[in-house]
Design goal:
- The protein is an alpha/beta fold.
- Helices cover 43% and strands 11% of the residues.
- Strands 4-5-6-7-8-9 form a 6-stranded parallel β-sheet.
Length: 295
């Protein structure tokens, strides 16, 4: 069975109208090319070979996602230096305007003026933000971000946050800084990327303590990730208990295996049922983002 047929077979068997994928990457071509070169070189934040399975041009990638039956997705962008976030936001806003099934995405960096361009992005329709603490190399408790977190909390705009220490630790990764941010801004809607791996247990604790915290499945549970960052078996029952706040994410196109393989890994988790899977692959994100997807 080819990848597309297998992906569609999974969600069709669950009676869903399709998939909502909260963790996909579309970027300016020059930025995406640099990201792919970094993966090709197995850079220090990766540490092992990482082939890009869906390396193709933008129109091809969009056709692939739509062929899978992905009905809504993101264009996760992220800066690694000052004076980068605002122009990435401009690009992403135009991409979303041209791509109606993309949730308009934005980002930020700790720099003067960040609260201004974050507020502007929200006012112009941004529905989700990306914060990449590892690649950005910044402290999420930086004073330059305090107003930014406040604006995001007040607006209720979800923030997909790579804050776990996988695949290798960063200067400010791990649960501590995020706990500090949530202590100051408890109404934040955070989506912890990659289930917070490898600190899975800590981020499950954070989600249990904060109603606004969700986790995305991106790369978690796959054979590729289990080799270096295995999910603790003792926490499997907690996945069931927090199922209403777990969202499907793939990391498309930057994944080193077929899309269907990651979906199978989620379906094969012990103790999950079809209702749980329907929530993860579609219903939870549809509710969070107010999507009305019809057959």
């Amino acid at each position: 069975m080819d990848d597309t047929a297998e992906v569609r077979g999974i969600w069709e068997a669950l009676g869903l109208p399709g998939i909502v994928d909260v963790h996909t990457h579309f970027m300016p071509k020059n930025v995406m090319d640099k990201v792919w070169r970094y993966f090709d070189d197995a850079g220090p934040l990766i540490g092992r070979p990482w082939p890009i399975t869906y390396r193709s041009d933008e129109s091809d990638r969009l056709a692939t996602l739509r062929g899978f039956g992905v009905r809504a997705f993101t264009s996760l962008i992220y800066p690694h230096k000052p004076d980068m976030a605002a122009w990435l936001n401009q690009w992403a806003a135009q991409f979303a305007a041209d791509t109606p099934d993309c949730l308009s995405t934005a980002t930020f960096y700790p720099e003067p003026g960040a609260v201004r361009y974050v507020t502007s992005a929200i006012d112009h329709g941004a529905r989700v933000f990306k914060a990449h603490v590892q690649v950005g190399g910044y402290d999420p408790t930086d004073v330059l971000l305090d107003e930014v977190w406040g604006v995001l909390a007040e607006s209720g705009t979800p923030v997909i946050t790579h804050c776990g220490s996988g695949p290798t630790p960063g200067a400010h990764t791990g649960p501590g800084p995020i706990r500090a941010v949530l202590a100051r801004h408890p109404r934040l809607r955070l989506i912890v990327a990659h289930m917070g791996g490898p600190e899975y247990t800590d981020f499950l604790d954070i989600a249990a303590a904060h109603d606004g915290v969700h986790l995305d499945t991106t790369m978690a549970f796959t054979e590729f990730m289990e080799q270096t960052m295995p999910f603790p078996p003792a926490d499997h029952p907690r996945l069931r208990d927090l199922g209403h706040r777990i969202l499907w994410g793939s990391d498309f196109p930057n994944i080193p295996y077929p899309y269907a393989e990651a979906m199978r890994a989620v379906c094969d988790l012990p103790g999950v049922d079809d209702d749980w899977l329907r929530g993860v692959f579609h219903d939870n994100a549809a509710a969070l983002f107010g999507l009305h997807i019809r057959d």
